[in-house]
Amino acid sequence: MQFMDTDHAKRREAYRKELKGLRLFDDNFMTLFFRDNIEGAQLLVRTILDRPDLSIKSVRTQETLINPGRSVRLDILASDSSGVLYNIEVQRENVGADFNRACLHAATLLTHHAMSKSKAKAQSQTKSEAKKHEYPQIYIIFITEKDFFRNGRPISHFEWMIQEDKKTISESCQHIIYVNGECRYGDQPLEQLIYDFFCSNSNDMKNKILADRVRYLKEHEEGVKFMCKEFDELLKEAEERGRKEGREEGRKKCKAKTARDVVANAMARGLPMELVADLLTLPVDAVKQIADQLKAEAAASL
What we know:
By secondary structure, this protein is α/β, with parallel strands linked by helices. It has helices spanning about 10-20, 25-35, 40-50, 100-120, 125-135, 190-195, 210-220, 220-245, 250-255, 260-270, 275-280, 285-300; strands at about 55-65, 70-80, 85-90, 140-145, 155-160, 160, 165-170, 175-180. Helices cover about 50% and strands about 15% of the residues. The chain has 2 domains: about 5-15 and about 220-300, no CATH class; about 25-200, no CATH class. Helix 1 (about 10-20) crosses helix 8, helix 7 packs across helix 8 and helix 11 packs across helix 12. Strand 6 and strand 7 form a beta hairpin.
């Protein structure tokens, strides 16, 4: 059954059932949870960096940065009052948490920022001023469901260093941090934060800021309507892109030919694979297999 032909009430009921089981580790829910959510993003960054004084000024989700030769889609992109940039990636599977991907994100953010500043640079600016403001501090933070490095630590920091001297290069503007989702049962703020990423019920969460937002999106009628509307829009967009890709192949061939495109678009927007399966009228396992293939191909291309 095609998405547009699905009974409205049944579709909404399917959304509500799906919504109840979603956690912050699920892309579709995480994306909408943190969209324009400065308070939530601020709690994340403050806790991970142990900087309670830090003030986040802006936050966007699923931001696409286009640089020459490569584009990168970021889960969460935030900036603070000092102009520091924070890219937070939430990864359920290790295949998407490759360290080289973290490096790619850092380089892409740096390049994108440099290109933007270069275009906007005023001619009256001195060289010393230009050099001072050319490179922002960039933090790439991967929150992984599993212990990616298998070191048993809740957090791992990576900095540039001179290996022979064992000396960190303090001038570096790129900082990479991995947060281990398996370290979530202690009483430290970071462990409690990660614990909340595994909760589907707001009553089980330890951080009030996160719990209140989850409760609003899942239990308040206004929040539930917002989530259902967003699911509607995302599914429509994914279906329309799939149709455009293979329209000339005919309806049946289009469905088979563009399944990968629809799944790829849905993954980029954080849609549940169960809803994508309904859209494509394919078994859920088949859709998940396509998603796994796309993830493997993306990791191999790094």
